[in-house]
Amino acid sequence: MSVSFDKALGLHPTALRLQERRTAVLTENIANSDTPNYKAKDFDFRSMLKQVSSGSEEGMKMTHGKHMGIEGLVPSHEMKYRVPTQASLDGNTVDSHIEKTEFTRNALEMQASMQFLTGRFSGLKLALKG
Fold first, then answer.
1. pTM of the entire structure?
2. Of the candidates 32, 40, 52, 77, which lies 20 to 30 Å from 91 by C-alpha distance?
């Protein structure tokens, strides 16, 4: 009897890759909070997860067996610019409070996925031991 990790783990490995990509985007926004004319970016995590899990996202196609692109996971046309709540004189659209809140939310969701996967692996390990 073979174990299918895809069935056992569900969407969580894909969710972790998307959350990792979103962490990088939000970190880039926070790092550029004082850069003139920098435009804050983000993507809709839930819609991207739905697209990736249904297999309809072109960004998931790999051209070589050794490719493992997180960058390609979220195509550039899926990136959206944030609309600032308060205009900045230097043209920067980063609101550090919003970015830090989104970063924290993303980190908590990532931690929840990790805890789920840890529990799932513990269950699989217990089942294999008998």
1. 0.74
2. 77
